[in-house]
Amino acid sequence: MNTTDEPAAGEPTLSVIIPVYNDLDGIRLTLESVTGQTYPTDEYEVLAVDNGSTDSTRDIIETYCERYPDLVTLLVEDEIQGSYAARNEGIRNARGSIIAFIDADMTVRADWLESLVASHREHGWDYAGCEMAMYTEHETWTARYDTFLRGFPVERYLHERNFVQTGCLTTTKEVFDAVGLFDARIASHGDEEFGKRVHEAGFNQHFESSITMYHPAREALRPWLKKQFRIGRGAVELQRYHPENAESAHPLHPRQFLPLQPRDFYARLTDATDPTPRETGIFYALDYASKLARAAGSLYEQYCTTPHESTN
């Protein structure tokens, strides 16, 4: 399947959706990036979805709404806490025939939207991902680990597991009309579950190597571990609501707590960089810490939470 139909007269051809929660600097950085596009401003819209922020994030968005009244719109999703719920609110309000997602704190080149449209016209895709490059302003151990050993293997995930991380995902509106929205019950892995639905529905999935989006590495240990905890929770939620797609072991399985085999870890590390012995030891400790944080998230979700009742 694919769609190349032009939108109705007066409708933007693209909708850019940015979910955000308590990220003043991140949303400012991203809004500055997506409002500075070479693509005609009357042919796209920017939907910034505040997910119930408790700081001044919403105020930042409103300043951009005032500065670009015909381009930027503030939406609010404060009933369900989660990035997928925020994205769903954006999708429900999107008027474009193509929907492009970007996370708050990410940046793109000025020709990002122009390049997406050109790629869509050339390949006729329904669902696409692009390169995600990580960068850091401060060389912390966490940021270096995040860059070397985590990152965003978008092309591999698309080819091997049929999904694209939502931070660099672009789809046609027809995809959501056909397969539904993201499952907002899932804290993490919702992009994977959605991508598999898209694949099973027969839509054309594409990786566009000529487009790169930029994502900052997590420099501080605490938010980085918090992300790993959320990933662990998402794995259990995926098992709970979509067992046909789940691959994780039970939260109490011993392998959830065991460190990686040193030989396997070193092979993975040397594929990405040429580490010193000290770097190898520190990266190994961080890798084990991330695994334990995911295991803790899995245990918390399995035994300390109440399942959600609805998907959106």
TrEMBL record:
It comes from the Archaea. SUPFAM superfamilies: Nucleotide-diphospho-sugar transferases (SSF53448). Signal peptide: none annotated. Residues 15-155 form the Glycosyltransferase 2-like domain. Keywords: Transferase. PANTHER family: GLYCOSYLTRANSFERASE, GLYCOSYLTRANSFERASE 2-LIKE DOMAIN-CONTAINING PROTEIN. This is Glycosyltransferase, type 2. It comes from Halococcus morrhuae DSM 1307. The lineage of its organism: Archaea, Methanobacteriati, Methanobacteriota, Stenosarchaea group, Halobacteria.
